[in-house]
Amino acid sequence: MILSASQLIFFAIRQFLKELPDVLPVLLNARLRKLIIDLLGKDYFIVKSIYFDKPPGSNWYVAYHQDLTISVDRKSDTPGFGPWTVKHNQFAVQPPLPILENNFTIRIHLDDTAENNGALKVVPGSHLKGVYRPEIIDWTVETEVSCVVPKGGVMVMKPLLLHSSGRTTNNKKRRVVHIELSAAELPEHLRWSERINL
Question: Is the model's pLDDT at 191 over the cut of 90?
């Protein structure tokens, strides 16, 4: 059986802005640029973009985690960088903690996102604890907050924030464009795999 392009369903498109560059001027419009500059300053640039689709008929639960890796153009033995992995033909590495602490994630919601269709759940303040393994979360101390975001809304977070998401149970789509930004320059023999200046 051959499916037409309109019948294909993509659950994730990594390097989204590289794969679909025509989306960039629409997504990175004057309002979003102003938001980024007002919140973060002028030194930040895009280092990763992913399109996520959590459709009602096929969706998944994501356990608590931190985003601990960055995407780079090649593997290179570099002090403080490791371990290394390859995800979808893309090199990923855990960098030194100051780089992770410097980064921000912007999530642009293309659909209403509520608790019953996969809204992110976060542990407030967890991004201030460095690498915080989910298996040692003390739920007698920590709390969980659901991040309800309306269609067209933007959520800004630190990648080190512990976050998870549940399955969609309301039979509605949950599409999000995930953009990571950094102001950190990498050692000269490493390059961000998806650097886009604002």
Answer: yes
The 10s digit of each residue's pLDDT in 80-93 is 999 999 977 889 99
Nearest of 121, 113, 109, 107 to residue 170 by alpha carbon: 113
DSSP 184: P
DSSP for residue 106: E
57 contacts: CB under 8 Å, gap ≥ 6: none
Going by the DSSP 8-state scheme, the letter that residue 136 receives in this structure is G
9-18, 30-39, 111-120, 125-134: least confidently modelled range: 9-18
Residue (of 169, 195, 191) closest to 181 by Cα position: 195
Torsion sign (Cα): 70, 182, 114, 174: negative
Q: Which residue has the tokens 């855990």?
A: 94
First to last CA, the chain: 43
Q: Is the pLDDT of residue 59 over 70?
A: no
Burial class (CB in 10 A: 0-12, 13-18, 19+), 191: middle
